[in-house]
Specification:
The protein is mainly beta. It contains one helix and six strands, in the order E-E-E-E-H-E-E. A six-stranded antiparallel β-sheet has the order 4-3-2-1-5-6.
Length: about 90
C-alpha cells in the first residue's frame, strides 16, 4: 500500500503577480454578477477573497483555486496600483 501523499503536477498562482491586499474582481462562469473585493490570503494553490455580499449587506469570504481559474471557471481581474489591471479568464 502506498502513502497518503503523492507527487503530482498541478497549476499554481504566480505569487509575484497577485498577493494579499490586491484589489480583485471575480465572476464565476454562469453567474450574472461579479464580486469585487480584496485578496486577504494568497497561497500557490488558492486565493481567499473578502467581498461585500449585497444580499445580506455583510462581508463574506470565498476561496478560489488555481485549478478552477485554469479551467476558466472564474473570470479574474486584479490590480495592485489601480493603474495596471491584469486579467485571467474568458471575458474581457
Amino acid at each position: 500500500m502506498g502513502g497518503l501523499i503523492k507527487d503530482e503536477v498541478q497549476k499554481v498562482f504566480d505569487l509575484s503577480l497577485i498577493g494579499r491586499g490586491d484589489c480583485i474582481r471575480i465572476k464565476r462562469k454562469g453567474d450574472t454578477t461579479a464580486r469585487n473585493g480584496f485578496v486577504t490570503d494568497a497561497h500557490k494553490d488558492r486565493l481567499t477573497v473578502l467581498y461585500c455580499n449585497v444580499q445580506n449587506n455583510a462581508c463574506s469570504y470565498i476561496n478560489i483555486t488555481a485549478e478552477d481559474v485554469e479551467m476558466k471557471a472564474w473570470d479574474v481581474y486584479w490590480t495592485r496600483d489601480f493603474q495596471t489591471v491584469y486579467h485571467e479568464g474568458d471575458e474581457g
